[in-house]
Amino acid sequence: MCGSRSPLLRPVPQAVGLAWILLLGQGCKDDTVVGPQTGDIVVTVTTSGEEPDPDGYALSLDGRQGVAIGSAATRTLTVDAGRHELKLSGLAGNCRAGGDGPSRTVSVEADATVQVLFAIECSATAGGIRVIVTSSGNVTDPDGYAVVLDAEAPRPVGIEDTLELTALAVGEHQVHLAELADVCSVTGGDVQTVTVAAGVVVDVHFEVVCHAGIEQWTEMESGSAADLADVWGTSAADVFAVGELDTDDENGFQIASMILHYDGTAWSLQRRVRDVSLRGVWAHSSSDAWAVGFDFFDDDARVLHWDGTQWISQDGFTAGPQESIGLFSVWGSAGNDVFAVGSTFDGQFGTSLIFHFDGASWERVTVPGDALPSLADVWGSGPTDVFAVGLDQRVDPTEGTVLHYDGTGWTRVYHERGLNLTTVWGTSASDVFAAGFTVREENEDFIVAGAIRHFDGSGWTTVPIPETGVLNELWGSSATDVYAVGDDGVILHYDGTGWTATHPTGQTLLGIWGPGAAEAFATGNAGTILHGTP
Q: What is the average per-residue pLDDT within 517-524?
């Protein structure tokens, strides 16, 4: 209207129409149209603090749906002149708007600009842990360690290192120092529980001590006077020792075998078997162990099995016509792959005796060929790589002999005149030690000397060792941590370079075994048990 057509034309009553025309006439005295009057609001957002809101905020005007605005941003709003309501929302729980808070009321005049500042302050919601690792000892872990926080993936850390774990939720966390070498341990334990507070970094110290080999041997109370021929276990708190005891009581002279067990605190008697000599023991688990030997007053071999509750005598080890059989050693690669070795005596010579257990039953194994030594010990790196050592008495002079099983059959792989092999142990198919003794005549005297031979995968060589007597047992934790025990309480140790000797007891030592490089048990005559520790 006022020079333009109205967008709506409708019939009206005459009286009303006249009044409407008069009003229009009055409104058209000035042809200038007055438009809406506006101004600007410049909104600035700043954010400070330790943990800023990561995704910004939402800015709304007069209750309308908000628009996004960053945590450090400026936005200009063109609005009608008058009062307006501004609100900043979407703040994280640890953030607050300073000054008048997140809501503001502003008055805007036409063609004017109003500045509005939202200053956001964000406090810390998380804390941190600083892991400090120090190491000491006579060796170091070559590849360092790993830090495990709660159930997260391991994070590598050096042997002298600091690792910071940040942005951790407030509350308790577990920090575990893992992947330590067998020769290393953590003073006070390798797991610590840490309470994290907001904005605070907590220091956690792990002191690692690493020792190669065993530095001291302490005599333990065995509770028995038996000659303990062998020892084996599954852990430092699950160890078996077997041997025999001569007694002279009201029933007359008797011989009885003893089976002792160590639970990590003390040794106790598990089984006493009359008229039996137990010479070897091997354990697959805490509920699966074997002890082997022979009967003094019978021709049969004796085998007992531990099921976790009791030792039970096993059938199937009956001697044949005109023979006596005995077993001296037992070893397995698994619970269903166990070998027991010894000898069968025909009245003149002892020859090879081997039994094999497949998880269901024991079967006597035929050893082919002419080399049939009486066997003293057995060990293998796996089911198709097993060594047995002993003495061939049918030749003159006698020969120390090594038999090897390749998964199919046994063959002789080494023999040496004047050598008597009593024990075998290794780390792999190309790192095997066999030990015993040699006898030589000197000025009408017979000199007995300890002897060790080594197989490197190609051949057997003589190993230089300190002067010692008969060596009875071998065991080690690695290729550079090997022990041999023998007469007069000698313990030889190989560190990868050479052998050294110690004599922690005067009793002859017959067996040795350990759960790792930092601990071992050695057994011997008269109930002797030595505990080796760093």
A: 93
Write the CB contacts of 130 (distance below 8 Å, at least 6 apart in sequence).
Answer: 162, 163, 164, 165, 201, 202, 203, 204
- Is residue 25 predicted with pLDDT exceeding 80? no
Supply the pLDDT for residue 6: 36
**DSSP letter for each residue of 245-293:** EEEEETTEEEEEEEEEEE-SS-EEEEEEEETEEEEEEEEEETTEEEEEE
Give counts: helices (H), strands (E), the chain. 1, 44
- The closest alpha carbon to 112, from 78, 145, 89, 135, belongs to 78
Q: Give the number of C-alpha atoms closer than 13 A to the C-alpha of residue 495, restricted to the C-beta side.
A: 11
Running DSSP on this structure, what letter comes out for residue 458?
Answer: S
Cis preceding linkage at 397, omega within 30:
yes
Token couple for 71: 């945590």
Specify the 3-state DSSP secondary structure of 174: strand
One-character DSSP codes across 143-165: T-EEEEETTSPPEEE-SSEEEEE
C-alpha to C-alpha distance for 258 and 271, rounded to whole angstroms: 6
pLDDT of 471 higher than 50: yes
pLDDT of residue 217 exceeding 80, the answer is yes
- Residue 127 has a CB neighbour count (10 Å cut-off) of 22
Query: What is the average pLDDT score of the chain?
Result: 90
The burial of 223, by beta-carbon neighbours within 10 Å (0-12 exposed, 13-18 middle, 19 or more buried), is given as: middle
- From the number of C-beta atoms within 10 Å of its C-beta (0-12, 13-18, 19+), residue 496 rates as exposed
Contact predicate 465/433, CB 8 Å? no
Q: For 358-406, where are the E strands, in sequence order?
A: 362-365, 374-382, 385-392, 399-405
